[in-house]
Design brief:
single chain; alpha/beta; 434 Repressor (Amino-terminal Domain); Rossmann fold; 3 domains; four-stranded parallel β-sheet; 15% strand; globular; DNA-binding transcription factor activity; transcription cis-regulatory region binding; HTH_LacI
Length: 341
């Protein structure tokens, strides 16, 4: 049997070979409908190099046609919280809508209590096709979600669960290398006494950022001074107070603080503005997330710009893949932000 070529596909559809090549290479100038027609004809003729993504798209289209009203659950805690999270959710819902998939909000509390049970919709496997866990950082609740038989995708995890068996795909915002580079930029600017602020037990991403900071300090033969670091468990509803208490306890200050997030940095900036008499020297702050809602630090500190829209789309597509391939090995994906100096 002769080898099928792009020209054969083009001849079968009465189009140019250039158009077929553009479709396979995801270039502009080819409509979605024609692109799908090209992929379908290529598969029909037995073309050996149909792009992997094209195959996935055709499979998803087939499932969409067979199940036009599918539903997936978004398991979320504090759904009315930061714009950072709502941007991710909005883009996720938008992407899933393109596949005729409904996104069902499933609220869980921020802190586990003995009276809590997972909502029945999650236990009834016939009701939804999969779930995405987002902004859920209680160890017990996240472990309960992890045990569900549904196809699952997690955005971040608590460190204890990360070290155990994750029964789903995990997407992490890369923090180690990014925080390493942020810390190095401070060192190159002349800082030698640098503290770190952020609960490293709350999220794996926080822990990775702390490790990046520590390794950068050691690589430059600088000491990590415990008195300048607040890394223990911090209450999610008492973050401001606990940071203020820590800053009040300082008898001397470092010249810079690496903050695990812009959320933390804005509390520190607020404290310094309110208590100038307690800050003996100028202090440089860095953050993470590039959250514009914290106006006292937005645009004024080095931070990491997390692509929230991309994250939302990536979570949706990963769940689509997982529902299509429930027995495929679980995946760990790092999405790296860009640093804004």
């Amino acid at each position: 049997m002769e080898k099928i070529t792009m020209q054969d596909i083009a001849n079968a559809l009465n189009i140019s070979r250039v158009t077929v090549s553009k479709a396979f290479n995801n270039q502009s100038g080819v409509s979605d409908s024609l692109r799908e027609l090209i992929f379908e004809k290529a598969r029909e003729l037995g073309y050996a190099k149909v792009p992997y993504l094209a195959i996935e798209q055709m499979q998803m289209q087939t499932q969409q046609d067979e199940h036009p009203n599918r539903t997936v659950s978004l398991i979320v805690s504090r759904p009315d919280s930061a714009v950072f999270w709502t941007n991710i959710i909005h883009r996720m819902a938008q992407e899933l809508a393109g596949y005729n998939i409904n996104l069902l909000y499933t609220y869980v509390p921020s802190v586990y209590t003995k009276s809590f049970h997972l909502p029945q919709v999650l236990k009834n496997a016939s009701g939804i096709d999969g779930c995405i866990a987002l902004n859920v950082y209680d160890t017990t609740i996240l472990s309960m979600v992890n045990e569900l038989s549904l196809p699952k995708v997690f955005l971040d995890a608590v460190p204890s669960l990360y070290r155990a068996q994750m029964n789903g795909d995990l997407i992490l915002i890369e923090g180690y290398r990014t925080e390493y580079e942020i810390t190095e930029s401070l060192i190159q600017s002349g800082h030698t006494n640098i503290g770190f602020l952020g609960d490293i037990y709350y999220a794996q991403t926080n822990l990775e950022r702390y490790r990046g900071y520590c390794d950068c300090m050691r690589a430059h033969r600088l000491d990590v001074h415990p008195q300048y670091c607040l890394t223990g468990s911090i209450g999610i509803f008492t973050y401001g107070k606990e940071l203020y208490d820590f800053l009040n306890s300082l008898t001397d200050w470092p010249s810079a603080f690496v903050c695990v997030s812009d959320f933390v940095a804005h509390f520190v900036r607020q404290y310094m503005d309110e208590n100038p008499h307690h800050v003996p020297n100028p202090v440089t702050l860095t953050g993470f997330d590039n959250s514009e809602e914290y106006t006292n630090v937005a645009g004024h500190i080095t931070t990491a710009n997390v692509p929230t829209s991309l994250l939302g789309k990536r979570l949706a597509l990963q769940l689509l893949f997982r529902t299509q391939h429930p027995n495929a090995p679980y995946e760990l994906t790092f999405v790296r932000p860009t640093i804004i100096f």
